[in-house]
Amino acid sequence: MKTISPESDEVRKSLIADIEVAFADVKREDGVTIHEAEIIDRYGSDEEQQEARKLDTETRWQDVPDDVMDWHSGFCFLDLKGFRYYLPAYMTWILKNLYTRKYNSGDSLIYSLVRIGDRHEEWHCWANVPEAYRNPDCACRFTATQRDVVRRFLEYIVLYEPDSSDENAASEALQKWEQIEKLIATERDTGQRMMVQCILHMPDGTVVEVPPE
Description:
This protein has 213 residues and is mainly alpha-helical. It has one domain (6-210). It contains eight helices and two strands; from the N terminus they run H-H-H-H-H-H-H-H-E-E. It has helices spanning 6-22, 34-41, 46-53, 66-71, 80-96, 105-123, 144-159, 167-190, and strands spanning 198-201, 207-210. Strands 1-2 form a two-stranded antiparallel ribbon. The longest helix is centred in the C-terminal third of the chain and has 24 residues, at 167-190.
């Protein structure tokens, strides 16, 4: 089994502590649970989803069982509340089990971070799109502190322990989360806005057209 260097271990422990602080108050609330997400992935019924939800009995992300994280990885089927709740649990678990994980749920989390980074780039730049119509999975829904700790998590994987995960995916995710901060800083600090026109097809079948400002 590969061991990590003292320098890497020091950074790792510091990062674990910072994840705890950044996500300390995050609750799952009515968000999708990890077992529920896997039933959604299998096109399960509403009744099956509710039964699966009962398997996730913890009320704090710090208490999500290790065996659940090692086995379950239905991140694409979590809503934002669910994803933000499980994200610190999985990042912490990955950091504590860099080379002892049995399955690929760690890589699945990184793939999801790539996906959310993509959605941010697509949606957040459209500054004239009303908030209610923005993609709910956009990374801008995280606090600045949370985004920073996610970026540092990916940076740690890429710079210190690339063999512990899919290095290419981690590098892509890191690049996208770095871009996120640049885009947000551009909009907030200088007020620059992309002049675009978009047509939004809403779930209820209505069409919302937003003209350029």
